[in-house]
Write a structure and sequence with these properties.
Length: 489
C-alpha cells in the first residue's frame, strides 16, 4: 500500500529538480515587485526560454526537451486507516506484552535461582567449615550412630506396622463375624416373619374352625332341646290318651279270668303304639336334623367364605393404609423439593438477570472505551501521517539544499496557463500540511477562482534554492510566454 503523502512529496520535489536542471546557464537576477514576487522582465532579459503548459498536461520549451507532470500529485490523499494494519499493530502490541511478561518472569526466576544459589553456597561453605573441624573418624562415628538410629527407627516402624496389620486383620475378622451374625439375624428375622405369617394364617383357619364347631354345637344343643320337647309332648299325649280310656270290665265270677294275659296284651298294644310313635318321631327328627345339618353346612361354608373375605379385606386395608401413608410422605417430600427447586430457580434467575445487566453495562462501557480508543488511535495516526509527511519533506529539502550548496543552479520562473480544475478539500488540506512542513519555503495553494499560485525564488547570497513559482490556472488556452529573470532579495 503506497503512501500518497510520500508520492506527493517526492513528485513535487522531483518537479522542482527538473525545473532547476532545465535552467542551467547564466545566473538569474530578479527584482521583487511590491508584492514580493519576481518580475517577469528579469527572466526575459537574461536569455531564459519560456515554458507553456498545453492541454495534454506536458511542458513544452523551444530550447529544452519537454517534460510531463506526475498526475499522482493531483490525486487526493487518502488518510483512511487500514483494518489489517490496525490488526497487525494490535497483534504486535499483544506479542510485545507477552514477550515482556515472559521476560519479567524469566528475570524473576533468574533472581530466585541466584538467591537459592547464594543460600546453597553459604550452606556449603558452612558445612565445609564444620567438616574441616571434625576428623574422618568422628564423621564415620557420627554416620554410624545416625545409621544405627535410623535402623532402630526403621525396626520400630516395621514392628508398629506388623502390630497395625495384626490389629487390622483382627478388626477385619471381627467385622466379618459381625457381618455373618448380622446376616444370620436378618435371615432369622425373615424366617420369624414368615413363620408369623404362617401362624397367623393357621390362627385364622383355627378360629374359623372353632366358629364352625361352635355353630355345630349350638345346632346340636337346639336339636337336643327339640327332641326333649318332642318326647315330653308325646309323653303328655300318651298320658292324656291313657286317662281318657274307659274300660268296662265284666267279671264273671263263675269262670276264672286270666288277667295276666289281658295285661300282657294291653302292654303289647301300648308298646307297639309307643314304638310306632317313637319311630315316627325319630324319622321326623332325623329329617329335620338332616335339613338342619345341610343348612348349617351351607351356612358354615358361607360364613367361612365371608370370614376369609373379611380377613383378606383387612389385610388389603392395612396395605392400602401403609401405601397411603407412604404416598403422603412422598408427596410432602416432593412438594418440599418442588418448593426448594422453585426458590433455587428464582434465585438463579435473579442472579442471571443481575449478571446480564452487569455484562450489558460492561459491554456498553467497553464499546464506549473502544470507540474512544479508536478515535484516539485515528487522531494519533493522522498526527503520525502528518509528521511522516513533514519528516519526508524536511529530508527532501535538506537533500536539495545539500545538492544546491555543492552546485549552484539558476532558477527558471515560468507562468503556466491551463484549464481550471476544481481542487478537493483533501488536496487543499495536504497542501496546507506541505506548506507547514516546508518551514523556510514560501509556498501557497489557495482556491481563488480556479487559480493556484506557487512562488519559486533563488538567492545567490546564501546559495540556497527556495521554490517560488507562480502557476495561474485560468479558462484560456495555454500559450507560450517568456519571463525575464531578476534577482530577488
Amino acid at each position: 500500500m503506497t503512501n500518497p503523502c510520500k508520492a506527493f512529496t517526492s513528485g513535487s520535489l522531483s518537479s522542482w529538480e527538473v525545473s532547476g536542471k532545465m535552467s542551467r546557464g547564466k545566473a538569474a537576477s530578479t527584482s521583487p515587485d511590491r508584492l514580493g514576487r519576481c518580475s517577469p522582465n528579469g527572466l526575459a532579459s537574461n536569455g531564459y526560454s519560456s515554458l507553456s503548459l498545453h492541454g495534454d498536461g506536458g511542458y513544452r520549451c523551444s530550447s529544452y526537451p519537454s517534460f510531463s507532470i506526475d498526475r499522482r500529485l493531483l490525486a487526493p490523499v487518502h488518510l483512511d486507516i487500514d483494518s489489517d494494519f490496525q490488526a497487525m499493530r494490535q497483534q504486535e502490541k499483544e506479542d510485545i506484552k507477552l514477550l515482556n511478561n515472559q521476560f519479567v518472569t524469566l528475570i524473576e526466576k533468574v533472581q530466585c535461582l541466584e538467591q537459592q544459589n547464594k543460600i546453597l553456597t553459604t550452606r556449603w561453605n558452612f558445612l565445609k567449615d564444620q567438616d574441616n573441624s571434625h576428623s574422618e573418624l568422628d564423621i564415620k562415628a557420627i554416620y554410624d550412630q545416625y545409621m544405627s538410629k535410623m535402623n532402630q527407627e526403621m525396626k520400630a516402624l516395621n514392628y508398629e506396622q506388623e502390630n497395625l496389620e495384626l490389629e487390622l486383620t483382627k478388626v477385619l475378622s471381627t467385622m466379618d463375624n459381625f457381618r455373618s451374625k448380622y446376616e444370620d439375624e436378618i435371615r432369622l428375622c425373615s424366617g420369624m416373619e414368615y413363620t408369623f405369617t404362617e401362624l397367623k394364617k393357621d390362627l385364622d383357619v383355627s378360629s374359623l374352625h372353632r366358629t364352625e364347631l361352635e355353630v355345630k354345637l349350638n345346632g346340636l344343643k337346639e336339636l337336643m332341646d327339640l327332641k326333649k320337647t318332642i318326647y315330653e309332648q308325646e309323653l303328655e299325649e300318651l298320658l292324656t290318651e291313657i286317662k281318657d280310656i274307659s274300660v268296662i270290665l265284666g267279671i264273671d265270677n263263675a269262670c276264672k279270668l286270666d288277667l295276666s294275659r289281658i295285661v300282657e296284651e294291653v302292654r303289647a298294644q301300648y308298646e307297639a303304639l309307643a314304638l310306632r310313635s317313637w319311630e315316627e318321631a325319630e324319622a321326623l327328627t332325623r329329617r329335620k336334623l338332616n335339613e338342619g345339618s345341610t343348612q348349617s353346612g351351607t351356612y358354615g361354608g358361607h360364613l367361612l367364605d365371608s370370614r376369609r373375605e373379611i380377613a383378606d379385606l383387612n389385610i388389603q386395608i392395612q396395605k392400602l393404609r401403609s401405601c397411603i401413608v407412604s404416598q403422603k410422605s412422598q408427596c410432602l417430600y416432593l412438594e418440599e423439593h418442588i418448593k426448594e427447586a422453585g426458590e433455587h430457580g428464582e434465585m438463579a434467575l435473579k442472579d442471571a438477570k443481575a449478571k446480564l445487566v452487569k455484562l450489558e453495562e460492561a459491554l456498553q462501557k467497553s464499546k464506549e472505551d473502544m470507540a474512544h480508543l479508536v478515535k484516539e488511535y485515528q487522531e494519533l495516526m493522522n498526527i503520525k501521517l502528518a509528521l511522516d509527511v513533514e519528516i519526508l519533506t524536511y529530508r527532501k529539502l535538506m537533500e536539495g539544499e545539500e545538492s544546491s550548496m555543492e552546485q549552484p543552479i539558476p532558477t527558471v520562473i515560468s507562468t503556466v496557463h491551463s484549464r481550471p480544475k476544481h481542487l478537493s478539500a483533501s488536496t487543499l488540506r495536504n497542501s496546507k500540511l506541505f506548506a507547514r512542513g516546508t518551514g523556510s519555503t514560501n509556498s501557497e495553494m489557495k482556491p481563488n477562482g480556479g487559480s493556484t499560485k506557487i512562488l519559486l525564488s533563488r538567492s545567490h547570497s546564501d546559495n540556497s534554492a527556495t521554490p517560488k513559482a507562480d502557476a495561474f490556472i485560468s479558462g484560456a488556452r495555454p500559450k507560450l510566454s517568456s519571463l525575464p529573470t531578476e534577482e530577488c532579495s
